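Hi support team,

I'm opening this ticket because the web form for multi-chain structure prediction keeps timing out on my end. I have pasted the exact lines I submitted so you can reproduce it. The total is 913 residues across two entries, so I didn't expect it to be a heavy job. Is there a limit I'm missing, or should I split the entries? Thanks in advance, R.K.
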Amino acid sequence: MLNYDIVIIGAGPAGLAAAVEAKKGGVDNILVIDRDRELGGILQQCIHNGFGLHEFKEELTGPEYAERFIQQLINLDIEYKLNTMVLDITQDKVVHAINMEDGYMTIKAKAIILAMGCRERARGAIAIPGTRPAGIFTAGTAQRYINMEGYMVGKNVFVLGSGDIGLIMARRLTLEGARVSAVAEIMPYSGGLTRNLVQCLDDYNIPLLLSHTIVDIQGKDRIEGVVVSKVDNNRKPIPGTERYYECDALLLSVGLIPENELSKSAGIEIDQMTNGPIVNESMESTVEGIFACGNVVHVHDLVDYVSQESRQAGSNAAKYVKDMLIRKGTTLKTKPGDGISYIVPQIIRTDNLEKHLDVFMRVKDVYSNSKLVVKVDGVSVREIKKKHMTPGEMERIKLDFKLLKDINDSVISIEVEREVV
Amino acid sequence: MYDITIIGAGIIGTSIARELSKYKLKIALIDRENDVANGTTKANTAIIHAGFDATPGTKMARFNVQGNVMFDKLCEDLDVEFKRIGSLVIGFNEEDMEELQNLYDRGIENGVPGMEIIGHKRVKELEPNISDNVTGALYAPTAGVIGPWELAIALAENAIENGVELLLNHEVKDIQKNQEGYELFTNNRVLSTKYIINCSGVYSDYINEMIAKPTFKINPRRGQYFVLDKSVGNLVNTVVFQCPTKLGKGILVSPTIHGNILVGPDAEDLDDKENLSTTEDRLKYIKEIAKLSVEEIPYHMTITTFAGIRAEPSTGDFIIEEAEDAKGFINVAGIKSPGLTSSPAIARYVVDLVGKIVGNLEEKDDFNPKRRKLIRFNLLSQKEKEKIIKDNPKFGKIICRCEHITEGEIVDIIKRKAGATTVDGVKRRARPGAGRCQGGFCGPRVVEILARELGKEMDEIQKDRIGSYILTEKTNKGNNSMKEEELELFPI
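Hello R.K., no limit was hit. The queue was backed up. Here is the completed structure from your submission:
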């Protein structure tokens, strides 16, 4: 059996930032494991720019952003294994993994950081009726074919779902000479960032059909077209609004699911709203010494926030290894109130807080001129005005340490309040 | 000149080919598709039925019961996963309970062993998630689940090992009689054969009419299904049917051999033999009916929906006979449910029939009933995993993250006889892409491995049937064959 202080699973932006920070936190014996053939995770296929505005105050491409962290990892001499698949994690922190060189490995870790990211929701999960031809891709798979393998997936493309990858791919396909007829979104608002709507659709005259969905897929061997229908307020197709779009490829950008099969096998409790591990202020899961960060915890809108959150996980895992995390003391819970779909972290042990705590959340609907109200046991303690909030963009608020000390067993809820104009 | 040509490499054609490969015969197994098991065999309920359903005295009843018994040995020889998990036909009222008694009596007459009628309490013990409204059930312990395409692929592989020639991409366009037998005109070439066995599924009437008078029709009957993720777990432990007097005759909830949950099928008569679309109204109907059996089915865990076409015979029973007006032309047609269960018994019966037509069949001395075992990495113990990676490092490389399928397994199933040449062909044999992400991650990797092992370009690899291409062309950057004058336009 191999022994490490910290084993980090996943070498995407989350794993890299966590590894670097853990090392800076004074732990030397670290191993990063990734199933892909290079470091950087999904960033390596995101060749568009727009990464790093918060983190580096400049606009980088995905591979450039990844490279900054990879360089730090290498400079800090952190050990990593690529093409390595983790098969299982046990509750007592033994990692079972395989690769071609080392064969079957069992690795005992003092702390584990889960940074496996997320996967795309596939056609089956949204059960679109019709035939099952070739030419239907999740947006990320199409991105891999085009940007990594150098192959086109179609010439006349329809996109279902307005998640960021779908929007980015609508532009990418256009630049590669394909025609993108439209992007359909079942919700009355886009699931992607506003800047992507402008830069990827508007700038290329690609229509965004809000409150629309696909009701039939046609084509025997290769997709030939889709029937698109308007939907009502309950997201049910409205008969008579059907319109046929000819296409030779359909891209799906219909949501991301944190990849938590390993977390479950380790006995970690999963939040039904985030589909990720329940974590505390230190990004530690419900299993002591197993931390989690990035899209495995909740799907982020910007990679910059993934890096930020993962540094937390890395530095706290280091503290844990050095027995500096406080396990007892006052504990608070967070609870999403009206208009909020989830809050991370779900648990706060105030004794581990220094100055303030970053709390991430998503709203359930589009809100203008509203405010986020923080309540402790139902009593409002802070209000933050928000000009515009949308489910496609994460909200972040800093909770001051002073606000949280001297309360125990309390529930901190955050809710949306519409401002009366 | 072939002695026997079998048209159609579905479960029936492959079963017959393998059974006939025990004898000294020159056999061709031909199919219009680019893979075996690419018709009804790949899209059905995947159940090995106990045999109480068919009317006593029919071929269906006889071959169902005979066939059921043969699966243990067959699956052991061919290394195909098969589990006798038993089935329940559940009733909700007195009328249903009478019908269950009828089914029981019919089962006894058909020779089905081990059946019991059990009460509410026993049903709930066996199946805690079944509706509380259940009054009782007919329990048949001999029912089972299997991967039908996996069995057909294994049968084809073993038949080839024993001398059968598999000719894929051969679509029969016409059949003509000649002095020694028949000429088969395909899109590919002309084959001469002494005898023909027509196992062409929904098209068997069409093939029959190329050479014989139309004595039967095959009507396509579509059925739709949901497949739920493995993590749903033990929603049900047995194959759960509803009592056939209920509205939802035939809609079942069952585990699959791979641990998923299958819900369906409905039954809808169509004119189109190729219409494999799923439709919102039928899927909704299936949900409504299945709800009677199991109230809480987690459809949000659906990984895919699909449709299959059953070959519904106009005669109401299996058609297994020599055409009256075409000597040596044997129809094996209308093999709808319980066709999969009946397949080994049908194959045996057809061999006898061939024996009678040909005269004595001479057995081979060197027939090998065993197929080389498949490697299923995720089912190995830690020790076995350690060893196999040491022996072949390709088993240390996971390609499918959801099902833990290794590159070693994928290369193996490409290189076998009747091996995979398409992405879905790989999926049917080794299951990458059959998991929750449905090939999102492993799709590109599988395309890459297929291209490498088959010596093709990635954009030549098909998803499934011919025409189901995945990639259209190289991107501008991916295409490195820019001419010099073009390069000048892009000065460095």
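A quick check on our side: The radius of gyration of chain A is 22 Å. Let us know if the file doesn't open in your viewer.
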